[in-house]
Design the sequence.
């Protein structure tokens, strides 16, 4: 009995410690946001440096944010540090070229460009292609069945067969987490960039993608032969997904209150700094219900009905809607709507030395790279 109590105590302590880890990490990032809004870039860099060093650079996009601020603050030491780490975490060359826009930093960027291949090889070496394929297989099967039913069923998201498939697929997803770990940046690489590397980069030995272990699961596609044939003939379609495993979550619309197990797994991944908050918000927003709306993905009810999927433009939202969204976002340390608006203005002023008159698509386009790192969907 004492042993059982001790084990429960240890588990509880470990869970609390992990929750504190994510809280501390994201709190430091939110402080950095505050400093950017106040145009105190050196202070923002201070918070980025503490967070990234202490928690071992868990997410590429946060390192990219730090590099952007170091670029504008002309801190050459931290720029070289963060930019080198960006490439080691998968930054493609076209993003690296953004940092050539300031003459003061040319020597640093040119140096990193010369060593780009060796740094990038470190990134590729960390990708576990077996784990990638296992998660992508779930995404691919969901993708094709989703499209098949979209063509032939008027109410495909409530199709009984699709619901059965999704329930089974989510069980596989949880089993994979137990067996190989979460599909995090450190083992499956970056979204979108991974797609290109899987299709083109021979160093990953994945230039000829084949469907992973799908034949044994053919009984799940009972009677849907057209779907399976398409799946076999067009495997490259699955590269339209985000981080492997995330496509399935986007379309898992049957959760309601019954799938607390999946949510528990996602929250643990968030607490462990393996999954970004958007994994959880997409899970909720896949219901298309306003009570689960964080305004963080194209599944967002408000974005679908009002904003047409432009993050950062909330002019049509009511005070009540903002309050509701902000309360949900705070649970996972996602910046409030008002802070996003302030950040857009601060980033624009940082780049053009003047504040924009308002927040519009034109303003967002003019700070495209910065916007993509700080505000855009899936970059949390």
Sequence:
């Amino acid at each position: 009995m004492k042993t059982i109590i001790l084990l429960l105590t240890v588990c509880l302590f470990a869970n609390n410690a992990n929750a504190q880890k994510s809280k501390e990490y994201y709190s430091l990032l939110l402080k950095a946001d505050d400093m950017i809004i106040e145009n105190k870039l050196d202070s923002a860099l201070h918070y980025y440096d503490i967070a990234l060093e202490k928690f071992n650079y868990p997410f590429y996009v946060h390192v990219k944010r730090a590099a952007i601020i170091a670029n504008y603050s002309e801190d050459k030491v931290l720029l070289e540090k963060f930019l080198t780490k960006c490439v080691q975490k998968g930054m493609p060359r076209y993003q690296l070229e953004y940092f050539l826009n300031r003459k003061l930093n040319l020597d640093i960027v040119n140096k990193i460009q010369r060593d780009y291949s060796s740094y990038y090889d470190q990134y590729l070496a960390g990708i576990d292609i077996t784990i990638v394929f296992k998660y992508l297989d779930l995404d691919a099967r969901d993708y094709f069945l989703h499209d098949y039913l979209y063509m032939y069923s008027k109410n495909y998201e409530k199709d009984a067969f699709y619901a059965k498939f999704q329930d089974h697929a989510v069980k596989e997803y949880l089993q994979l987490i137990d067996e190989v770990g979460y599909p995090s940046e450190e083992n499956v690489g970056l979204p979108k960039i991974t797609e290109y590397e899987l299709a083109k980069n021979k160093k990953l030995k994945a230039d000829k993608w084949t469907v992973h272990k799908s034949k044994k699961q053919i009984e799940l596609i009972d009677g849907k032969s057209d779907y399976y044939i398409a799946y076999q003939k067009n495997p490259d379609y699955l590269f339209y997904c985000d981080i492997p495993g995330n496509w399935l979550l986007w379309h898992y619309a049957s959760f309601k209150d019954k799938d607390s197990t999946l949510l528990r797994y996602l929250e643990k991944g968030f607490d462990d700094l393996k999954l970004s908050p958007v994994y959880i918000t997409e899970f909720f927003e896949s219901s298309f219900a306003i009570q689960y709306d964080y305004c963080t993905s194209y599944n967002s009810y408000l974005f679908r009905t009002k904003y047409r999927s432009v993050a950062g433009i909330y002019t049509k939202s009511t005070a009540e809607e903002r309050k509701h969204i902000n309360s949900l976002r705070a649970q996972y340390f996602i910046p409030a709507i008002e802070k996003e608006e302030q950040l857009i203005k601060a980033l624009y002023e940082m780049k053009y030395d003047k504040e924009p008159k308002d927040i519009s698509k034109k303003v967002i386009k003019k700070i495209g790279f910065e916007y993509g790192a700080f505000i855009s969907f899936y970059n949390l």
